[in-house]
Records
---
Amino acid sequence: AAEALRMNVTSDLPVICQVTAKHTAGIKCNVAAFMPEAAGFDGVSDRSALQEFSVSNSESFWAAVARQRLSWIRPFHTVQDCDLSRGEIKWFVGGQLNVSVNCLDRHVHTCPERVALIWERDESGSEVKVTYRSLLEMTCRLGNLLRRHGVKRGDCVTIYMPTCPLAVASMLACARIGAAHNVVFAGFSAEALAERIRDAQSGTVITVNQGVRGGKVTELKKTVDTAVQSCPAVQQVFVAMRTENPVAMTARDVAMEEEMLKEDVVCEPAAMDSEDVLFLLYTSGSTGKPKGLVHTQAGYLLYAALTHRYVFSYHDGDVFGCVADIGWITGHSYSVYGPLANGGTTVLFESTPIYPDPGRYWEMVQRLKINQFYGAPTAIRLLLKYGDEWVHKYDRSTLKTLGSVGEPINTEAWEWYHRVVGDGRCPVVDTWWQTETGGICISPRPSDADAEIVPGMAMRPFFSIKPTLMDTEGKVLTSNDVSGALCIAQPWPGMARTIHNNHQRFIETYCRPHPGYFFTGDGAYRSKEGYYQITGRLDDVINVSGHRIGTAEIEDVLNQCAAVAESAVIGYSHDLKGQGVYAFVVLKNDVEVQGAALCQQLNNMVSKKIAKYACPDFIQVFVQRLPKTRSGKIMRRVLRKVVERDLDGVGDLSTLDDPTAVQEIIQGHGDLC
Ligand code: 6R9
């Protein structure tokens, strides 16, 4: 069948689609030219038919795409074997492949000198280009080095590095030898890193001597030293040199570049089963403990590749500029795996949007000739405040598509991105997805080039994605112009398979709330036209500058302070960050603390135990009690309304144990700092 499909692509005359009622703009789309894999789909003559086909024949759709887009060592015999209600997800069963071969070797065969990575170092104007040939070489040396140091198939390697080619080579080296990687954002504290190393049962860590971001040096190796003190399983730490400053090395440490030079440039790739683990990535949930989402080989790679190709309309020769850090899922899917699987050229951005000045992004777009730019609303909102001149200074004529990810993009930011950054020429794709979904699930494209895009809306499901809204009783909302809990009605290859070491939690979080559906934790509105707009989290997860953080995680830290009896953390609407952190703290009876000193102490604790971005913007300290239900649950809904000064919205307080608690908060009792 695969052979037949392939022949179709190359030998048959392209099918010109008919202009249907849905395509009144008179677009003549050629489905096979648009998507070669679609050439064999019966009766699919235009793009909307392709979308429908992908949803109602998701198996045939993904089988064709998987056969043609990936290189297999052994073909799969079963396209999917999934039971959403039990959280059992398997794709491309029986198949074997190697992800690093798909991202490197096959492109080295066809175009070895093509640039794979452009490392946009923190020091602007000093970018480094890495070809496919040299990235493969780096990956192989590193794969051999890891193997020589005993890293085996199935082991987990923690990567604590800034966004740089060696970090990408580390990810791919793990994939090459069949180890799973666990990238931890280099902004996380030693304790947060240690918790993730322990939970992942990782025996190996890869890091750099120091990081450099926004002109500031961070002591990453020292952070690792502190972290591994509480991780007895860690046997070895590989240390690469990002700066020239030497760091103290212990018996456990390995000088990475030096040792890599001794290794062979050929490294036998492991034949991995489709459902072997590719990586873990920790993210916040509504309880205190971050969860290690597990992604597997074939389905994840395929989904990242296809979404990268079609959402952004990425074509051969384009330069793709995703400015996310590799410590987040966006960096995994759209700085590394998607672009490399497609043989693309991808930018690794190490800096910040305002270093050395607020023109950084656009100067980079000009210098690197970026065609697709993918960033976060929080940065767009920040840059908007600095004014249009910083954008106008630079030539942005190479830009074709602008993407947004991580949080809702407000209309003002969307308009500015579209009008000023894109000169009104480039489609803006607001892409909704999650660590759990592996890749983009809702976004305005792919669709016909002149299909409407509504500001601030993710709008349309990607191929095979079937969004469903549920009401509060758990019933499917079938009409339009409704809001509900956003679920996805059928499995797709990119979805996470489990939570590392806690499948039960996976089932309870994603599968149990709406049996038979994947529950996203987000709310959404479906417009009259049937377009989706994400309205925000339905659980106790807040989104600070695109970083997900559980309110319970912050509360856990605050409660560890000897002076604190209990605390409640909520998110509130923040101009730049999207959401800010607001903490209510109740002190123990007998403590004597000064407001500002206590706040300082609490902030230090949060930054030490989690990361700086999780620090509260406001802490309201008082000695009274928090509003609770009679069963003892903190009423965060009430606290949110008070902070928003929406006192009418506070609603029914009759279920509160002690309604005077709310009055005291409204009257602003306590110290605010
Ligand atoms: C990719 C990523 C996921 C959460 C998600 C949602 C929010 C992401 C969004 C968006 C509105 C968008 N989110 N994209 N909200 N519009 N385009 O960000 O993954 O870090 O796991 O966060 O972010 O609330 O549930 P992750």
Note: Residues 283, 328-330, 405-408, 430-435, 458, 520-522, 534, 537, 543, 548 surround 6R9 (CB under 6 Å).
---
Amino acid sequence: MFSRKSRVGRNDPCPCGSGKKYKQCCLRNKKTPDVKHTPDYYLRRHQVILKTPEQVEGIRRAGVLVVDLLDRVEQMIRPGLVTDEINAFVDEYTRSHGAISAPLNYRGYPKSVCVSVNEVICHGIPGEWALKDGDIVNVDVTPILNGYYADGNKTFFVGTPNADARKIVSVARESLRLGMSVVKPGSTVGDIGWAIQQYAEGQGCSVVREYVGHGVGLKFHERPDIPHYGHPGRGLELVPGMTFTIEPMVNLGRHSLYVLDDDWTAVTEDGSLSAQFEQTLVVTDAGYESLTPYDLEKSM
Ligand code: MF3
Ligand code: CO
Ligand code: CO
């Protein structure tokens, strides 16, 4: 990787990214500097922005607002609630906390939150539609606080759920929990997808392919993509400082979808129910920390 031109001098910063001088670090320890795990390498080679502790703190603070928003929306949910009322609340609450709703005007998206009911997989646009007893509804929020993005969503029951609704919401929640559980340095993006796909398909459900988790933090959608399907050991290796979402969309029937004429609303092709949960994570030395930490252990 080092050309003659970029040869490291004894007094240069060590290429391993320790911050020490080369002569006091890998040169002294007779180690080949581990360049493939440095922020510089991840950026140049993979366009992945590894975050500093200060940046992680910024995302964590935006994440507090994500959890707060989702908690408060949950309290609003009832039959008869019009989905535009969720939008009005999220928009106003986000502003009043000094943040901006990332979805509003993002690539032409017209609202401040995504609200996806029943067979809507994601990117449902709030409107005149009223929730009714037995519906499931996903609410996805992404506030930008002091320039930092945190992204999270949850699927809620409206009134009393039937067995299908309970099943798909339970499988989607557990899919996120299992995907998160493999996150640690040395794991790969493929390990996350595999954990989710194995479980969800084992439950007779299917995993959406067209939408994936994503790097997040300084922008809404950063590298890398985090598919919710895949093969163990494949894909990018996780390293401390990576921040990304895991957000499996799981269908009760088949995984195929179509997008409505509004160019946003994604719907299951077979009309089956779809559910989703999303959190924003940072990879740590020990494993991971959720920056949108809501409870995923739910007794059904
Ligand atoms: N929040 C969604 C995600 O998890 C993205 C929504 S894009 C929007 O990635 F424009 F619809 F808001
Ligand atoms: Co997301
Ligand atoms: Co989201």
Note: The radius of gyration is 21 Å.
